[in-house]
Amino acid sequence: MVLQAVLLDIDGTLVLSNDAHAQTWVDTFREFGYDVSFEQVRSLIGMGGDQIIPRIVPGLTDEEGDGKAIAQQRRKLFLNEYAPKLVPANGARQLVQHMLQSGLRLIVASSASSQEMEVLLKVAQVDDLLTEKTTSSDAEASKPAPDIVEAALGKLNSSPQEVLMLGDTPYDIKSASQAGVGVIAVRCGGFDDAALAGAKAIYDDPADLLVHYADSPLGKIA
User: Fold this and answer.
1) Which of 18, 22, 72, 143 is a plausible cystine mate for 175, CB 3.0–4.6 Å?
2) In the chain, pLDDT over 90 holds for what percent of residues?
């Protein structure tokens, strides 16, 4: 089938935010009396809080008790302390513009909250370009579950064969693969090529993908 649309991850893909997310989790867990290292959390970034919390502290959930309080506090800390310091990934806006000019339909496929999404799109300098999106409210489970990707496909009314996803973590790849969608990965999220195995192609960042656009899976629209 002809490529019709691209699902876009934001964190680590269009915004260099993965380290900030990891540090926010570390800070918040510590505030609640849990000693968690940066390395423990960093490898899980790309998942949502519903996945991260029970993996870090078995028995906790983001729906009740300490787990729920941690999830809420982490979001506040990220928005208030870390988000103002974030920068876009190299070439983020230019790549989005080029994909739109190429005739592709774009939708954000992220499990970020709507409030976080608004901030991240502004940081990426694409808030005026991307109007279609999914957020945490559109899925029961975050990546690596396929819910977010399936929600995006539903909003597009597209089949998996007509779309690709642009992401930066192994959880993007697993989530998309379970929904039958191929992934183009970028390294700017901090994961190495071994972790990104399964992607159709891997580039350094959006700017690198844009340089090689014609020869990339995105260039094969027709």
Assistant:
1) 143
2) 88
